[in-house]
Design brief:
The protein contains 9 helices and 10 strands. It is of the alpha+beta class. It folds into 2 domains: about 15-185, no CATH class; about 190-285, Immunoglobulin-like, CATH 2.60.40. About 40% of the residues are buried. The structure holds heme C (HEC). Heme C (HEC) binds near residues 218, 234, 241, 267 and 272.
């Protein structure tokens, strides 16, 4: 099966294939929090650690992360053609080995290319996202593995049907499989969502509320949201530009989201041909802050 990771669309093959065949027996050591980066393979934790002043980061070394309890999955065509083994550490286990503040319930992964991926509490509990620390027993120091055209390091986050049945069927699951992850923030979901729940976004219609979920899970990967709602910056399009299209250029908005290159040659946004008219309605209702009173 050819590898379908692509730098721009960031879709993955989803070719998880065999069950977990080995479970690490190492016991978790408390993770050493470094004040300074020790290598390009450190994971930066930039928010949510107890005892670390806001605005400061701490760094966790790859060597320490691989010493956490880990498992191996055998997968087909995920990074390189054919069968390969990936070594994984559950996000939950990483979380448990860090002094995360008690009020934080959500993890946000930031990537080297300004991509962003949010993992909400139920998602972490039910879908068992994990960090990939090795591919065929080789860490990111040796990446990209032969046969892969781009470097997915320092970390990839992904999920597997073997750990969470049905996870590959989730809408836009690719957004929960970021690669190039080099930074994680632990946030409180209510605080993160506040900009999309206040001001004109305070009293949204039911479909706008559904659109907010869709936005946060999919569009926020590359787009900043209303009133400073955090998101990735890969699109380099300020929210008011999207808002103007959603409000005044309805057909263009729908066509663009569905099939960007069909609208503008050279567009790099990933297409969403699978969105229903109803889902487009929901997104537009959220973006224009359609009120329940309308
Ligand atoms: C993988 C990154 C990515 C994701 C995910 C993404 N976008 Fe984009 N978007 C872009 C980029 C990059 C652009 C800039 C134009 C281009 O290169 O396509 C863009 C541009 C746009 C535009 C056109 C703006 C213009 O100037 O004409 C709209 C509308 C838009 N995005 C809406 C959305 C919505 C709604 C979602 C969620 C369903 C979404 N995007 C998800 C990357 C993304």
């Amino acid at each position: 099966m050819p590898v379908s990771f692509s730098h721009l669309s960031r879709t993955v093959s989803g070719g998880w294939f065999l069950v977990v065949w080995a479970v690490g027996t190492l016991t978790a050591a408390p993770l050493d929090l470094r004040i300074d980066r020790s290598s390009p393979f450190d994971l930066e934790i930039s928010a949510g650690l107890a005892g670390v002043p806001e605005g400061e980061s701490r760094f966790v070394a790859w060597e320490d992360i691989v010493a956490l309890p880990s498992s191996q999955l055998e997968v087909e065509g995920e990074f390189v053609p054919g069968l390969q083994t990936v070594t994984i550490v559950l996000l939950e286990d990483l979380w448990a080995a860090l002094p995360v503040s008690g009020d934080r319930d959500t993890a946000i992964a930031y990537c080297t290319d300004d991509y962003f991926s949010i993992f909400q509490p139920e998602f972490i509990a039910e879908q068992k996202p994990f960090l990939i620390t090795k591919i065929n027993d080789q860490g990111p120091q040796a990446w990209p593995p032969e046969g892969l055209a781009f470097n997915p390091g320092p970390y990839v986050i992904s999920m597997a049907d073997q750990l969470a049945p049905g996870v590959s069927q989730i809408l836009d699951v690719g957004h929960k499989r970021p690669w190039g992850v080099d930074e994680i923030q632990f946030v409180a979901l209510a605080e993160y969502e506040a900009p999309a729940r206040t001001g004109p976004w305070l009293d949204l219609s039911p479909r706008a509320i559904r659109g907010r979920e869709l936005w946060i899970n999919s569009c926020a990967s590359c787009h900043q949201g209303p009133q400073g709602l955090a998101g990735g910056n890969k699109s380099k399009r300020p929210f008011p530009v999207l808002e103007a299209h959603a409000r005044y250029n309805d057909a263009y908005f729908r066509n663009y989201v569905s099939d960007p290159t069909g609208q503008i040659a050279g567009a790099t946004m990933e297409p969403h041909p699978h969105y229903t008219t109803e889902e487009m309605d929901e997104l537009i209702a959220f973006i224009v802050a359609e009120s329940a009173a309308d």
